[in-house]
């Protein structure tokens, strides 16, 4: 008797578990070598020949064409980590993969999957306690925030800029959007522009949009600007139906031309008389209107997108107006300066210091598309982790020190756990060791020797990580060297990796339809 389609494929028992675990481990292995300050980059080429060069875990996994459902769950771990805290994506994926590897060994020893799941969940609770114990007692000030940002970007592609200098820009941006209600991370934008060294990267106190003046004779810069934002077409009105008009004489033609000119001039005069210095409109602007307004020294941008219009309104305090006759001075926004800049084939408008400026923009420069793309990813991650650290006020040591502390506490607590579940708890600690082991391997150290030395230093000093300075690698307190991470990044990595690994381990039947 056939219950399923004859074309369906079914894998059960150990074969199903082995297939899923193998897929998860393969995904983790794909990003493992990118971890840490000496992590390597990956080159990803899609079917269309587009190339992405990065060592950002989330980007790598998103760009990979992964079909296996269990492997896709590891990708989701990375995506969740990126969405929640913005960094630690590689760490989360690597831990998840090694939890699966340890589970595979336990299954081969006839430890039931449910026992493994229970042990892993208990170990994850101990891990969270260990993270809390590692939190720095000092207040999270600008210096610590810079260390968080720098630690996030170390080892990533930052062009000719140092992670330290970029971290200053990142902290300045986050501080700008700090409010009594928290950190408005969404109010920090990143805009990239190819054509200069990354040293030209700057923080713009406002927004940047891809627009050029409607007329070449218009001013390129306006200070203390009064800004109108319109949803109005500044040109001859046209009907919604096709119509033809018969003209029998020159006088009738001149009359029609005069009427059109009068209508166009009326638009131009209405804008000029309103007192606006700068006009943004989502519709077209007639060339004659542009020419007239250029003569009046008014800067106009036409055909701007709705999202750009909303950003301008938010930054300047302007109100969008749908009819020119409704335009009043009360509808105007204000900005310290609006300038139009040309970058090769691209034109950009900078709206700086708006009266209601809630948004700042990190204007990223780079010599090539690959450089600016990777720099954008690095800055985006740094902005996320700095915002997370500022919001929570909790940071922990990086460089593998927190993971060493987690594994040590789990092994200590495992001694009090009865039955086979103790094996799963201990295996969890072994899986966590993959982070310092990988950091050691990526810096050219022997992973086993480094792990032994780290454990010894942790036992004696209470805190020990692999500190990379130039070509030298030492074991020391990461706090003393400014290598710090937000505590929430570690918590999220543990929780998401545990959830994914336990879900995969519990699967013993795969039914795939053709």
Automatic annotation (TrEMBL):
Stretches for region Disordered: 1-20
InterPro entries registered for this protein in UniProt: Chaperone_TCP-1, Chaperonin_TCP-1_CS, Cpn60/GroEL/TCP-1, GroEL-like_apical_dom_sf, GROEL-like_equatorial_sf, TCP-1-like_intermed_sf, TCP-1_chaperonin, thermosome_alpha
Pfam families in the record: Cpn60_TCP1 (PF00118)
Domain of life: Archaea
GO MF entries: ATP binding; ATP hydrolysis activity; ATP-dependent protein folding chaperone; unfolded protein binding
Keyword field: ATP-binding, Chaperone, Nucleotide-binding
Matching PROSITE patterns: TCP1_1 (PS00750), TCP1_2 (PS00751), TCP1_3 (PS00995)
Record family assignment: Belongs to the TCP-1 chaperonin family.
Annotated protein name in UniProt: Chaperonin Cpn60/TCP-1
Species this protein is from: Natronorubrum sulfidifaciens JCM 14089
